[in-house]
C-alpha cells in the first residue's frame, strides 16, 4: 500500500493541505477543534510525517553527534564511564525526539572522517568526550560553526562551552581524608597528563600535600587497570615506606590493590587506597574501595541540556557538577 500523503489527510479532514502541515509540524496557529479533526484523520489513515522533507524546511537533522576521542578497544573496554555517558546522553536526547550518532575518533584518519561528517550537515550539534591535548577536533569543529560542547574542560585553548566535575576539589577531598586517617607518605597514581581530568586531579593532590608540608610521590597511568598495577609497583620501588595511595580513577585503584596484594601489603593496614569515580565495581573489591563519587550520568545529561540550549540560541556558560567522598574499608 502507498504511504498516506498530506493531501489524503487533508481530504479526509476536509481542510487544506497547509492546515494539515501546520498541525503535524506542531504550529500553534490552528484552532483546537480543527487540530482534533486533523489528528483524527492522521490516526485513521496512519499518516507518518516525512522527516526528510521536514528537515529541508527546518534546516534541522534532529541528530547530534557524540564524538569520543578514543579508539574502539578503549571505549568498549571495562571502563564504565563511556557506557554511562553514552546511555545518559541518549536518554536525554530521546526525551526530545532527537537521535544520538556515536562517532569514534581515536586516530588521525578518524579525526578527518568526523570533521567531514559534521561539515556535511549530518548533525545539528556535537558533544566531545575524552579529548586529549593533541586532539585537533575541538579547534576544527569550532571553525565549522556547528554548536559544540565538551564533556570536561577542553584540553586545548579553544572557546567551547563545557560541562565538568570538580576534579580538583574531589582529589583534594581524597587526600585530606587520608591525612585525617593518620597517613604520612601519600602517593598518587595520576591519570594521563594530556587530559584535563588527569591534570586537575593531580593538582588537587599536590595542593593538599603542599599545604601540609608533605612531599608528592607520583606515578602516571592511563586510566586502565593494568596501568594502575604497573604504577603501584613503581611507587613501591621508589618509596617502600609509603602508607597510602590516591589513584585518579577506580580502575587504576583496583590495579594498584592487586599489585599491593602481590607485594604482601595489607589494605588498609599497611597501605590505604582511595580511588576516583565510584564505579559499581568499587563496592565489590576486597576490601571495598573508598572513592570519590563522580556523577558521570548527571554530567552527561547536563552536557545534552547545554547543547540543546545552544541550538535554541541559549547561553554558553560552563557548568560544574560537584563530587563527594564515599568512605569504604580500603582506607
UniProtKB/TrEMBL annotation:
Positions of the HTH lacI-type domain: 4-58
Keyword Transcription regulation in annotation: yes
Domain HTH cro/C1-type residues, every copy: 5-33
GO MF annotation, one: transcription cis-regulatory region binding
Transmembrane domains' residue ranges: none
Record-linked Pfam families: LacI (PF00356), Peripla_BP_3 (PF13377)
The keyword Transcription belongs to this UniProt entry's keyword annotation: yes
Alphabetically ordered keywords of this record: DNA-binding, Transcription, Transcription regulation
Superkingdom of the organism of origin: Bacteria
Protein name as annotated: Transcriptional repressor RbsR
Amino acid at each position: 500500500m502507498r504511504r498516506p500523503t498530506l493531501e489524503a489527510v487533508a481530504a479526509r479532514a476536509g481542510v487544506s493541505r497547509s492546515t494539515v502541515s501546520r498541525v503535524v509540524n506542531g504550529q500553534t496557529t490552528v484552532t483546537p477543534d480543527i487540530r482534533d479533526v486533523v489528528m483524527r484523520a492522521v490516526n485513521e489513515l496512519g499518516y507518518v510525517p516525512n522527516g526528510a522533507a521536514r528537515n529541508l524546511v527546518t534546516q534541522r537533522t534532529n541528530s547530534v553527534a557524540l564524538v569520543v576521542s578514543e579508539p574502539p578497544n578503549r571505549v568498549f573496554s571495562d571502563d564504565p564511564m563511556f557506557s554511562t555517558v553514552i546511555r545518559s546522553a541518549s536518554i536525554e536526547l530521546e526525551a526530545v525526539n532527537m537521535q544520538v550518532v556515536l562517532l569514534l575518533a581515536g586516530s588521525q584518519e578518524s579525526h578527518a572522517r568526523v570533521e567531514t561528517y559534521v561539515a556535511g550537515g549530518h548533525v545539528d550539534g556535537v558533544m566531545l568526550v575524552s579529548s586529549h591535548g593533541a586532539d585537533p577536533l575541538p579547534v576544527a569543529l569550532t571553525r565549522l560553526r556547528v554548536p559544540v560542547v565538551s564533556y570536561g574542560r577542553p584540553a586545548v585553548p579553544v572557546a567551547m562551552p563545557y560541562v565538568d566535575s570538580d576534579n580538583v576539589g574531589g582529589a583534594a577531598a581524597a587526600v585530606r581524608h587520608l591525612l585525617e586517617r593518620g597517613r604520612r607518605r601519600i602517593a598518587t597514581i595520576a591519570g594521563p597528563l594530556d587530559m584535563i581530568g588527569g591534570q586537575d586531579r593531580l593538582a588537587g593532590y599536590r595542593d593538599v600535600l603542599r599545604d601540609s608540608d608533605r612531599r608528592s610521590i607520583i606515578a602516571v597511568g592511563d586510566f586502565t587497570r593494568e596501568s594502575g598495577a604497573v604504577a603501584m609497583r613503581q611507587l613501591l620501588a621508589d618509596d617502600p615506606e609509603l602508607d597510602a595511595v590516591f589513584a585518579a580513577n577506580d580502575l587504576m585503584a583496583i590495579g594498584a590493590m592487586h599489585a599491593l596484594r602481590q607485594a604482601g601489603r595489607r589494605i588498609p593496614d599497611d597501605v590505604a587506597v582511595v580511588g576516583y569515580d565510584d564505579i559499581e565495581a568499587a563496592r565489590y573489591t576486597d576490601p571495598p574501595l573508598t572513592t570519590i563519587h563522580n556523577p558521570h550520568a548527571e554530567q552527561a545529561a547536563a552536557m545534552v541540556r547545554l547543547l540543546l540550549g545552544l541550538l535554541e540560541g541559549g547561553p554558553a556558560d560552563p557548568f560544574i557538577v560537584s563530587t563527594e567522598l564515599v568512605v569504604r574499608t580500603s582506607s
